[in-house]
Amino acid sequence: MYKHILIATDGSELASKAVAAGLELAKSLHARTTAVNVTEPWSATVTGEPPFMVPMINFDEVAAKRALDILSRVRGAANEAGVACETLHVSGFPAESIVETAQAKGCDLIVMASHGRRGLSKILLGSQTTRVLALATMPVLVCR
């Protein structure tokens, strides 16, 4: 069925459930996996007036360290499950980068979590999962 599964993770507790589900599915299907963590560009994290701006100093370094930590946990879980897993840290807008990575790697399924935001928080924060569903040309398994 599926031969190469992309697992998207932001390191959250909910995303860890998607990681576990993706690895379990990959193991049962003898599929390989690629885990991706996406860091938005610094310019996308800037909000409000200058006193409320996120400092740019060391942004890339901090983001890379955080991604390494997140992806190391995924790699450990994959090793424990006996599943081959490549890990990638990508810089870009999350939904677009997830879909582009899945396409570039030849993945035939995307597994990710949905935080299930509703109302005003969904409008303000958006939904990367909804955007992935709209952009993806392959199936998407959403875990909650």
Structure description:
The chain is α/β, with parallel strands linked by helices. It has one domain: HUPs (Rossmann fold), CATH 3.40.50. The protein is built from 6 helices and 5 strands; from the N terminus they run E-H-E-H-H-E-H-E-H-H-E. It has a 5-stranded parallel beta sheet, with helices on both faces. Helix 1 (13-29) links the parallel strand 1 and strand 2 (32-39). It is globular and about 45 Å long. The two termini are 23 Å apart.
CATH superfamily: HUPs
Structural class: alpha/beta
**Assigned CATH architecture:** 3-Layer(aba) Sandwich
Distance between the termini: 23 Å
Task: Work out the radius of gyration.
Answer: 15 Å
- Give, in spatial order, the strands making up the sheet with the most strands: 3-2-1-4-5
Largest sheet: 5 strands, parallel
Helix share bin: 40-55%
Q: What's the CATH first level?
A: Alpha Beta
Beta strand count: 5
Number of domains: 1
Number of helices: 6
C-alpha geometry: globular
Topology, pairings included?
Layout: E1 4-8, H1 13-29, E2 32-39, H2 42-45, H3 59-81, E3 85-91, H4 94-104, E4 109-113, H5 119-125, H6 128-135, E5 140-143
Parallel strand pairs: 1-2, 1-4, 2-3, 4-5
Helix pairs in contact: 1-3, 4-6
In short:
The protein is α/β, with parallel strands linked by helices and 144 residues long.
Task: Write a concise keyword list for the protein shown above.
single chain, alpha/beta, 144 residues
